[in-house]
């Protein structure tokens, strides 16, 4: 049964009102600048909508990283500069400092929620990437002000719901990364819907050593290395014949071809997690092959998780993916069937 969507900011009366917008501005900073403004750009439609509709003031809040107290290295100052560059009329825009500078944020402290709500008329949650956290700025404040879903949050829920509500078959799931424990719940849920679950990365080794109660396809061959090092001696070997002490750091050419063929025949695809240590070019071929196959498939495709999104973006394939999710952990919890506190706190449409 489909879960009801939360009410949308599209339906809110915002003219002449002061809004608190919880955005996801958790972006990488390098050398005194924003290194990737994808999440900032993703927040623009909601901010621009309420400004165009006459909001008196729009206060934007977000976390950035995991600071231990008010650490200047995690200040939103650089993020604010970039946001103001992107918003045509930012005079009515206020950007609050990193919510995690206050230890009460992650404790969902009611007093902090009251402080965030003070002087504001409406609350809009547009931070899907943080919607699985019951924090003061994502859940607590939603009980103190009329709460609405932002355009990004709304779109995320609609797109991910397509994977759960009668996805067009064949439905192929590709999962990689490091820890089976982090994804076993979503694997169990999607196994009820998917025609195939293809596994790569360290997860594949874990499953081979400790089988799980989910039918999955594991690599036939791997690119194994003598040690975890970008320049370590490496060779393509059968996944069942990895030399003692060696590590499988990518799926091999036979597996790349098999997985690409599976993906090519799909009509619905979900991908989360790289096929190997794709940050090192020698072990990036598997992840790149999956990205290219998904882009070429013509299927409805959803890519989630920071590493998978980065791989698609770096390969210049982002525009050929149906939906790139901004929330790794949140998307997995949603697909698993868990309630997202930041969503549940908003009244249904």
Order of strands across the biggest sheet?
5-4-1-6-7
User: How far is the first residue's CA from the last residue's CA?
Assistant: 16 Å
The CATH level-2 architecture of the largest domain is identified as: 3-Layer(aba) Sandwich
- What is the typical, i.e. mean, pLDDT? 95
- Kindly estimate the percentage of residues that lie in beta strands according to DSSP: 15-25%
Q: SSE string, helix = H, strand = E?
A: EEEHEHEHEHEHEHEHEEEHEHEHEHH
Helix content: 25-40%
Poorly predicted runs:
none
Tell me the major beta sheet. 5 strands, parallel
CATH superfamily of the largest domain: Phosphoglycerate kinase, N-terminal domain
Individual helix count:
12
Structure commentary:
By secondary structure, the chain is α/β, with parallel strands linked by helices. It is built from 12 helices and 15 strands. Strands 5-4-1-6-7 form a 5-stranded parallel β-sheet. It has a 5-stranded parallel β-sheet with strand order 9-8-13-14-15, sandwiched between helices. A 3-stranded antiparallel β-sheet has the order 11-10-12. Helix 6 (184-191) crosses helix 11 and helix 8 (253-264) packs parallel to helix 9. It is globular, with a radius of gyration of 21 Å. The model has no long low-confidence stretch (mean pLDDT 95).
């Amino acid at each position: 049964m489909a879960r009801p969507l939360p009410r949308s900011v599209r339906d809110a009366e915002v003219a002449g009102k002061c809004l608190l917008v919880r955005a996801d501005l958790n972006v990488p900073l390098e050398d005194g600048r924003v290194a990737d403004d994808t999440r900032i750009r993703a927040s623009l439609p909601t901010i621009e909508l309420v400004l165009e509709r006459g909001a008196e003031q729009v206060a934007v809040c977000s976390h950035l990283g995991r600071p231990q107290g008010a650490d200047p290295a995690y200040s939103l100052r650089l993020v604010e500069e970039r946001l103001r560059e992107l918003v045509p009329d930012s005079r009515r825009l206020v950007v609050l400092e990193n919510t995690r500078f206050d230890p009460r944020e992650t404790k969902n402290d009611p007093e902090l929620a009251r402080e965030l709500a003070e002087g504001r008329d409406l609350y809009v949650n547009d931070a899907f990437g943080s919607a699985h956290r019951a924090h003061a700025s994502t859940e607590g404040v939603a009980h103190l002000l009329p709460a609405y879903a932002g355009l990004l949050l709304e779109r995320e829920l609609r797109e991910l719901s397509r994977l759960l509500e009668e996805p067009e078959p064949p439905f192929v799931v590709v999962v990689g990364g490091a820890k089976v424990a982090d994804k076993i719940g979503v694997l169990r849920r999607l196994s009820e819907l998917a025609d195939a679950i293809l596994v790569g990365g360290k997860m594949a080794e874990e499953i081979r050593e400790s089988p799980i109660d989910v039918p999955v396809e594991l690599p036939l061959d791997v690119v194994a290395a003598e040690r975890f090092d970008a320049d370590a001696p490496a060779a393509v070997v059968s996944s069942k014949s990895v030399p003692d002490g060696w590590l499988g750091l990518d799926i091999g050419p036979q597996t790349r071809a098999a997985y690409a063929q599976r993906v090519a025949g799909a009509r619905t695809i979900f991908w989360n997690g790289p096929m190997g240590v794709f940050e090192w070019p020698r072990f990036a071929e598997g992840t790149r092959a999956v990205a290219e196959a998904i882009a070429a498939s013509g299927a409805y495709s959803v890519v989630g998780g920071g590493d998978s999104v980065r791989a698609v973006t770096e390969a210049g394939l982002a525009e050929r993916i149906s939906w790139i999710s901004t929330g790794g952990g949140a998307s997995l919890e949603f697909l698993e069937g868990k309630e997202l506190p930041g969503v549940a706190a908003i009244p249904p449409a």
